[in-house]
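User: I'll paste a sequence; please echo it back and then give the predicted structure.

Assistant: Echoing your sequence first, then the prediction.
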Amino acid sequence: VMELAHALRITPSSLPATVPYLHPPASARRHDGRLAVGLVWRAGDWGTGRSAPMALLRSLAEIPGVALHVLQRGPGLAERPPGFGVDFGTDDMLEAAARIRALDLTISIDSMPAHLAGALGVPVWLLLPHEADWRWMEGREDSPWYPTMRLFRQPSRGDWAGAFAAVVDALQALLQARTAEGR
């Protein structure tokens, strides 16, 4: 399986990345005038290096104009401080897809919700460790797998703070652009 791209002679430019290719039932959009942002910070036990410290996500809660929706499932959910965002996650994949589609943006570590958002063709910002999985390639801020995904990498090994600083800057720029557009 790992050699399939080579055997098929697929390159990043020839990768068939037409999205969305999943079409769950629609869910009510999350609009109260703020940017509805879904969050995932903790990976499963087999890939703990993909997990980001929950403490760094608190900076996102301080940005005016952002409504946080917690998509995190599993043991990582216990790390969520009281009052941090709205619990918006579910273990039902079809319902999770509908909920992700209802958001304006998903910010996630390399996880199932990030791949689901990419397959749905909705905006997703992916937080990656410095030495990320081969799928994310090197030196890219985009993904040929998911055209609506933006990659945020640790600037150096273990530097989640640097990756989050870039996310906060990008989120503030997105909010400024929305304000300029009158949204």
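Strands lie at 35-40, 66-70, 86-87, 105-109, 124-128, 149-153. The chain has a mean pLDDT of 90.
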